[in-house]
Amino acid sequence: MADKKVDVIIIGAGPGGLAAAYGLASNKTVLVVENDLWGGTCPNRGCDPKKMLYSVVHTKQQAADLAAVGLKSDSSINWEEMMEFKKQYTEKIPSGTLDGLKSANILTEHGKATFIDETTISVNDTSYQADKFVLATGLHPAIPQIEGNEFIHTSADFLSMPHLPEKVAFIGGGFVGIELANIAAESGAEVHLIQHNDQVLKRYPKELTSALVDSMKDHGVHFHFDTTLSSIRERADGDYELLGENDFSIEVDEVFAAMGRVPKLDSLNLNVAGVNYDNHGIQVNAFLETSNPNIYAVGDVVNRSQPKLTPVASFEGAYVAEGILTNNDHDSIRYPAIPQVVYSSLQIATTGVSLSEAVDNPSLYTVKTVKTGSWYTFNRIQDPNAVVITVLDKKNSTIAGATVLSKIADEIINYFTFEINQKADKQAVAHQIPAYPTPASDMTYYL
Ligand SMILES: Cc1cc2nc3c(=O)[nH]c(=O)nc-3n(C[C@H](O)[C@H](O)[C@H](O)COP(=O)(O)OP(=O)(O)OC[C@H]3O[C@@H](n4cnc5c(N)ncnc54)[C@H](O)[C@@H]3O)c2cc1C
Ligand SMILES: NC(=O)c1ccc[n+]([C@@H]2O[C@H](COP(=O)([O-])OP(=O)(O)OC[C@H]3O[C@@H](n4cnc5c(N)ncnc54)[C@H](O)[C@@H]3O)[C@@H](O)[C@H]2O)c1
To answer: Do 4-141+262-326 and 149-259 come out as alike in CATH topology?
Structure first.
């Protein structure tokens, strides 16, 4: 017999768990368990703090790019003030999240949840039973298994560094490595990015990632391709010596892991709950049910092909709440077009059908690449390398996907996402009257 009983227990108070909790709160008794910061990765040590630092850095980069067309400024970044700006936002997140849950009458418990049996968890030596569970425990950074790995820090450490070190290294050139290297370099550090093969951001076309790498090199980032670290040594002066194959060696003040993220499952004891999982996360069916039909999983911790992003986690959390309320009397989950943006000195963004899928299916799709650097919008902001690639559905003449390289790719990609979701064709796009001149008023030209 458990100490306490509720209808639904949600493990993890990030975007996925919170969306499920709010979706259920008015009809069920809900307990949310969180063992770290209320709000999870995104607002505390992910997307939001990163983009606050990026806003400062990106504005400095934009000011430098406009110097040749009349903007005379001598901007430099004060890391401590920029971190204070970030902290003013992040320090309110855990308490604000907790207050929100309490005012929606959602029960909360701070501590690590561990399954005792299929319907019961233990948190802080108290047992809680529920009819349904939602697992939303997210990911944590992968750390290389090399000598000296105890000296490696993570993206969370980077985003709360009180002072900027003189020399830093990132292991891995994916989203985290590329975005944080840009922030560190523009803020004044000497930055080294170590990538074990010859391409960063492997899901994007090489022509675009090469343009981004060139841009980041111009902004001071040193790339070390085809380089695998073998050990890290602490020197007497407190610096670290990074050693790799083929006599690779550099010295830095700090080194950060950015080589991917792995599911946070260790403390859950999923075997006693009858939940199947592997190295890529918890296995779910098309209703996000795990191998135990009373236990669902959402967000980053799920083993699925959708990108690991905040809006995806929230979408899944809301979907599962509806499933629990209707006994799964709803359609299997169908994702709309999902935009994803790399925020660096240039932004690369994608949405909808990927270029590789379009190229592999020429009978279904037409791919159109337009170098837009000389267009009015891009000239106005001095963005000469801009490229917009569209994927058109041949049968319906609708937009099916887009990939954009530009300083404002984050804005442009949202217009494409709306159009894909509305199944817009050229006529439908032309039927809009957007504000002019803006990136939205360019949309008709891409079709
Ligand atoms: C540096 C960085 C930048 C990012 N930038 C972006 C971006 O720009 N845009 C974007 O869309 N996404 C971005 N992401 C990804 C985004 O943060 C995640 O996709 C999102 O947070 C996933 O939400 P989630 O609820 O699945 O997991 P999380 O937010 O990770 O929440 C999981 C929660 O579960 C808790 N937990 C784990 N195990 C237990 C347990 N046993 N008991 C109790 N609690 C537990 C954890 O402490 C955590 O708080 C970024 C990620 C990082 C690391
Ligand atoms: N803007 C965004 O949307 C955003 C930003 C940050 C993180 N995220 C999410 O977080 C996830 C994790 O990001 P990430 O950058 O940690 O992982 P990632 O999978 O995007 O990139 C990891 C990189 O490290 C490289 N790598 C792997 N092992 C290595 C090794 N031993 N030495 C050198 N390089 C190595 C890989 O080849 C790859 O380039 C992403 O998939 C993304 O969904 C999203």
So the answer is: yes
The bound ligand whose nearest atom lies closest to the alpha carbon of 347 is 2
195 ligand 2 Cβ < 6 A: yes
List the Cα angle 383/190/211 in 5-degree steps: 30
d(CA 28, CA 21): 9
Nearest ligand atom owner, CA of 282 = 1
Pocket flag, ligand 2, residue 196 (CB < 6 Å): yes
pLDDT digits (tens, 9 = 90+) for 27-61: 999 999 999 999 999 999 999 999 999 999 999 99
Q: Is 304 in the pocket of ligand 1 (CB under 6 A)?
A: no
**Cβ of 353: how many Cβ atoms within 10 Å?**
22
ipTM over 0.95: yes
Question: What average pLDDT does range 398-418 have in this prediction?
Answer: 97
- The answer to whether the Cα torsion of 410, 411, 412, 417 is positive or negative is positive
- Domains of the chain, by residue range, sit at 4-141+262-326, 149-259, 346-446
Considering the four listed CATH numbers 3.50.50.60, 1.20.1560.10, 1.10.3720.10, 3.40.50.2300, the one that applies to the domain covering 149-259 is 3.50.50.60
Find out whether 194 and 244 touch, Cβ atoms under 8 Å: yes
Q: Which fold has domain 346-446?
A: Enolase-like; domain 1 (3.30.390)
Q: Whose CA is nearest to atom 3 of ligand 1?
A: 46
Query: Tens digits of per-residue pLDDT, 174-223?
Result: 999 999 999 999 999 999 999 999 999 999 999 999 999 999 999 999 99
Domain 4-141+262-326 bears CATH identifier 3.40.50.1820: no
The pTM for the full model equals 0.97
342 lines ligand 2 (CB under 6 A): yes
What pLDDT sits at residue 328?
87
Taking the centre of ligand 2 as the mean of its atom positions, its distance from the CA of residue 258, in whole angstroms, is 6
Greater model confidence, 92 or 73: 92
